[in-house]
Each structure stands twice: as structure tokens, then as C-alpha cells.
Amino acid sequence: MPVRAPTHLHIPRASWRRPAPPTFEGRPLPYPDEPVFDQGLAFDVETLLGRRQVLRAMGYGALGAGLFSVAACGPFGSTATPGGSLDARPDARSWRRARPGRQND
What we know:
Elements: E1 23-24, E2 27-28, H1 41-72, H2 92-98
Antiparallel strand pairs: 1-2
């Protein structure tokens, strides 16, 4: 039995839609016919606020990393006791007495 040829041409529905407007950083441009640098003050302010949020997040991340590195240098396993004596440190007078070539006072 012979196969019949289709009597109509199939056009997918996706091509019926209008093309998406051009975007910049995920936002549609208010004036798609103009270049990105000429989109108006409101678009520029919105862009600056978005970038400030990213920079603020990066600053908080750097601050957290800095605090983490400073905290990592701390004496967590220290055996020193608060109020310990300073007897282990040599006295200045005993150092003077112990220097060779000097007469004892």
C-alpha cells in the first residue's frame, strides 16, 4: 500500500511567538533599539544597586575569611593559666650581673 504525502506543512508553535527582547544581566532592556550604555537613568541606577549588592557580599566574605584566619592563629590548646607568675623571665639585674667581662656590683 503506498504512503500518502502530508497535505500540510507542520510549523512548530515555538516559532509563532515573538522573539524575546534583548536583556542585560538578566534584565530586559527598556529601549531594545538603543545600545546598553544609552538605556536611561533608571536602568543605570538599577545596575549600580545590583553591583553594589554583589560587592557588599564579596566584602562580607572577605571580612569573614579575615576573621577566620585571625581566629585560627589563636592559642586554642594553650596551657598558660591566667595570673601565672613571671618568675621564668630573667630579671634585668641578674642579666647585668651575668654578662662576662663585667665586675659584679
